Automatic annotation (TrEMBL):
It comes from Campylobacter geochelonis. Catalyzes the reversible interconversion of serine and glycine with tetrahydrofolate (THF) serving as the one-carbon carrier. This reaction serves as the major source of one-carbon groups required for the biosynthesis of purines, thymidylate, methionine, and other important biomolecules. Also exhibits THF-independent aldolase activity toward beta-hydroxyamino acids, producing glycine and aldehydes, via a retro-aldol mechanism. Transmembrane segments: none annotated. Keywords: Amino-acid biosynthesis, Cytoplasm, Methyltransferase, One-carbon metabolism, Pyridoxal phosphate, Transferase. InterPro entries: PyrdxlP-dep_Trfase, PyrdxlP-dep_Trfase_major, PyrdxlP-dep_Trfase_small, Ser_HO-MeTrfase, Ser_HO-MeTrfase-like, Ser_HO-MeTrfase_PLP_BS, SHMT-like_dom. The gene is glyA. Its main location: cytoplasm. This is Serine hydroxymethyltransferase. It is found in: Cytoplasm. Its EC number is 2.1.2.1. The lineage of its organism: Bacteria, Pseudomonadati, Campylobacterota, Epsilonproteobacteria, Campylobacterales. The keyword Transferase applies. It catalyses: (6R)-5,10-methylene-5,6,7,8-tetrahydrofolate + glycine + H2O = (6S)-5,6,7,8-tetrahydrofolate + L-serine. Belongs to the SHMT family. Homodimer.
């Protein structure tokens, strides 16, 4: 029986979501459109298989084919990042990070990560996350110019003496200097952990500095700039660390691995290893740059003044409307973004003075600088007259027309 006849409610809602993804301009910096072949394998019979353990060392029979699949995913992941060991089982980026902490820390140990309100991530020690509950977390941030000050981070490390330093961000527009972080970590005898979820797709294309060989352990998600299935990975060059990571993930915090997703990771990695990937990653950066340039030319402030990666962070500290109002107005105009705090924030985290805008998803649809210039002007038009709902409706029609020129999925693919 088809999904349509068995469960019309879920069938219809999934189609509505497909329509939304096709009609709107997806500019949430952490989202992307994965490949139909990745979705094909994720929707396959591989979901039926239990394979607790690792390739060649499973607790169940019948694992000969999933062993090969996981090994291919591991080998491709290592090739991509240029590292020696990879665990492709984490179900998400958060679980990957939880697995890293479990492998190297004891409850109460000190970690030093980037402040969530400065562009860090919940799992980098935020008090509401288990990373801030089980470990004693301290934070560094960015300066008012939106950039990390490595000397200041070194001073904070010197004072707080963390066992682990976490680098990596969710809303940072400049390259992260992993070598400098390693110097800081070495100066206080700390372990260096990089979470490159946001920039991984750029890293593997050589469009962002590689965290290896500087970091002891690296985690990432596979669905953001990497454009693969939703999930996590952990990598290292040290065999002893790899063993600790493996047991921290299974049996530490996970049971049976999601073999259909691991197969999706393998397929995604094959895309990431292709020559086309380098073209895509370069375009992601060029598009974000264009977006930023046009917004600045229209009088808008960007945190750090521009971007070196896949996102821009619009600062509304000097505007009389908030990040929340701006992202709502843009949503009404068919442009999906998210509100974000900015350095020097004066509004609450539920309101904010910033909007994070990313280029990965629309680049996956084939859009280039010309389209990003057009979109940036539309964003500025909407924000210039933020309460004009008629204008929002007009822009919504225009961006839908643009979106439909860049087909990403059709019903037959899915
Ligand atoms: N939720 C992701 C982001 O938007 O950056 C991070 O996990």
């Amino acid at each position: 029986m088809s999904l349509e006849s068995f469960d019309k409610a879920i069938f219809d809602l999934t189609n509505k979501e497909l329509q939304r993804q096709c009609d709107y301009l997806e500019m949430i910096a952490s989202e992307n459109f994965t490949y139909p072949d990745v979705m094909e394998v994720m929707g396959s019979i591989l979901t039926n298989k239990y394979a607790e353990g690792y390739p060649g060392k499973r607790y169940y029979g019948g694992c000969e084919f999933v062993d090969e699949i996981e090994q291919i995913a591991i080998d491709r992941c290592k090739e991509l990042f240029g590292c020696e060991f990879a665990n492709v089982q984490p179900n998400s980026g958060s679980q990957a990070n939880q697995g890293v902490y479990g492998a190297f820390l004891k409850p109460g140990d000190r970690i030093l990560g980037m402040d969530l309100s400065h562009g860090g991530h919940l799992t980098h020690g935020a008090k509401v996350s288990s990373s801030g509950k089980y470990y004693e977390s301290f934070f560094y941030g960015v300066e008012l110019d939106g950039r990390m000050n490595y000397e200041k981070i070194a001073q904070i490390a010197e004072i707080t003496k963390p066992k682990m330093i976490v680098c990596g961000a969710s809303a940072y527009t400049r390259e992260i200097d992993f070598a400098k972080f390693r110097e800081i970590a070495d100066s206080v005898g700390a372990f260096l952990f990089a979470d490159v979820a946001h920039v991984a797709g750029l890293v593997v294309a050589g469009e962002h500095t590689n965290p290896f060989p500087h970091c002891h352990v690296v985690s990432s998600t596979t669905h953001k700039t990497l454009r693969g299935p939703r999930g996590g990975i952990i990598m290292t060059n040290d065999e002893e660390y790899a063993k600790k990571i493996n047991s921290s993930i299974f049996p530490g915090i996970q049971g049976g691995p999601l073999m259909h997703v691991i197969a999706g990771k393998a397929v995604g990695f094959k895309h990431n290893l292709s020559d086309e990937w380098k073209v895509y990653a370069k375009q992601v950066k060029a598009n974000a740059k264009k977006l930023g340039e046009v917004l600045v030319s229209r009088g808008y402030d960007l945190v750090s003044g521009g971007t070196e990666n896949h996102l821009v962070l619009l600062s509304l500290l000097n505007n009389d409307f908030s990040g929340k109002e701006a992202s709502n107005a843009l949503e009404n105009a068919g442009i999906t973004t998210n509100k974000n705090t900015v350095p020097g924030e004066t509004r609450s985290p539920f309101v904010t003075s910033g909007v994070r805008i990313g280029s990965p998803a629309l680049t996956a649809r084939g859009m280039k600088e010309a389209e990003f210039g057009f979109i940036a002007n539309k964003i500025a038009d909407v924000l210039d007259d933020i309460n004009n709902t008629e204008l929002q409706a007009k822009v919504k029609k225009e961006v839908k027309e643009l979106a439909h020129q860049f087909i990403i999925y059709d019903r037959a693919m899915y």
